[in-house]
Each structure stands twice: as structure tokens, then as C-alpha cells.
Amino acid sequence: MGCAGSTPKTEDNGKKLKKPKPWKHTQAITPAQLRQMRDEFWDTAPHYGGQKEIWDALRAAADSDLALAQTIVDSAGIIVSNSDMTLCYDERGAKYELPKYVLSEPTNLIRDG
């Protein structure tokens, strides 16, 4: 008799990506301020540990639509712990935490015009 209770694993790298939940910044910010926050995070992210190639893949995924982001994380071997990509791991177990502001816009973003 075989193992009737075992099921094949369908996704190698964790969860299917989803849009981040709406969030609000502590104060209203402009698109330029949001871009500056994102640039500062990505410029310093490799210093938090992990591999630069994984950080680069996460940045590309964060800047993409969900379908392309899923392809990027799958191709890079990134294990998505939180489906909104706020917590990920690489294949060696290094942890990658992404703030919501690099993944989506806040609800209190000040639009020009």
C-alpha cells in the first residue's frame, strides 16, 4: 500500500502573491516623497543581509504587476512567507522584510492637480 495521505506539493516557493492590503502613512505624502522613501530603502536594503541578487529580484517584483512579480519570485527561488511580499526568504534561509511603502501606495497619497 502506498501513502494515500500524501499530496504533491504544487508550489515550490510558498504562497501565491496578492495585492497588499490598503494602508495609511502616518501623514499624507506626495508621490515624490514616496519615491524618495522607496529609493532610500532599496539603496540600503542589501546592507540588511541576504544576497544582492535576491534584493534586486524583490525590487523588480515590487515594481511589477502581480503576474510578472510571481514569475520573478519563482524564478529567483524566493520563498514568500506573506502573500503581500512583506516577508520573504531565499533558498539559504536568509530573511527579507519589505515595508508596505515599497509594495503599494498609501491611501493618503497626495495626488498632483
Helix content: 25-40%
Question: In CATH terms, what is the fold-level topology of the domain at 31-102?
Answer: Bacteriocin As-48, Chain A
Give the CATH level 1 class of the domain at 31-102. Answer: Mainly Alpha
Give the strand tally: 3
Q: Which spans of ≥5 residues are poorly predicted at pLDDT below 50? A: 5-11
CATH second-level architecture of the domain at 31-102: Up-down Bundle
Distance between the termini: 69 Å
Shape from CA axes? globular
The overall pLDDT, averaged over residues, is: 89
How many helices? The count is 3
CATH superfamily of the domain at 31-102: Ub domain-containing protein, DC-UbP/UBTD2, N-terminal domain
Cα Rg: 17 Å
Roughly what fraction of the amino acids lie in strands? 5-15%
Write the layout of secondary structure elements.
Layout: H1 31-44, H2 52-62, H3 66-75, E1 79-80, E2 87-89, E3 95-97
Antiparallel strand pairs: 1-2, 2-3
Plain-language structure description:
- By secondary structure, this protein is mainly α.
- The protein has a domain at 31-102: Ub domain-containing protein, DC-UbP/UBTD2, N-terminal domain (Bacteriocin As-48, Chain A, Up-down Bundle), CATH 1.20.225.
- It is 31% helix and 7% strand.
- The chain has helices at residues 31-44, 52-62, 66-75; strands spanning 79-80, 87-89, 95-97.
- It has a 3-stranded antiparallel β-sheet, with no helix packed on it.
- α2 (52-62) packs antiparallel against α3 (66-75).
- It is globular, with a radius of gyration of 17 Å.
